[in-house]
Design brief:
Helix 4 crosses helix 5. Strands 1, 2, 3, 4, 5 and 6 form a 6-stranded antiparallel sheet that branches. This protein has 2 domains: 11-101, SH3 type barrels (Roll); 105-170. 45% of the residues lie in helices and 17% in strands. It is of the alpha+beta class.
Amino acid sequence: MPALYSMMSGPENFRPGECVRKFITERNISPFYGIVTHIVPATSKVWVQWPIEHSQESPETLIKVNPAIFGLPTVTRDSGYDSYEKQLSERLYGRVPKRILATEKMAIRIAHTFAVNIIGKIVDDVVTYHDQGLRDVQTYNRIYHKYSNVCSDYILRFAIQKIYAGLNEEK
């Protein structure tokens, strides 16, 4: 197995906080990413926090992934139990960096910024165009060029539909 992928090796070559994917077969690799939480050299195993579980994995079945290319995994916290192995691993190899565990707060901040800055501007523009007497299709054509690179077509259509329905009910 290590001959196929040079990244695959013993547990000493992993560090807490590294992103990994699981090797299943020659042509099949797990679609999700995990974070190495601690290393147990006595059993030659690595503990990985996957999106659905925290499990002990053989290092030969793990492939290191560059998070700068593939993005950070969706894992936000280490759900492993405290144990002697975990304390020993933290002492020898360190802990999972806080920047990885703080992705949940970062996601909330990004969603809030998107909602306030982008959605708020879309709503203002749609209401302005409605007040000018434009139909919903004309409004869509105007705001599409302005916001198509920062949000999906579905968000634009849904916003126009909701706002036009609400404003037409008030009349």
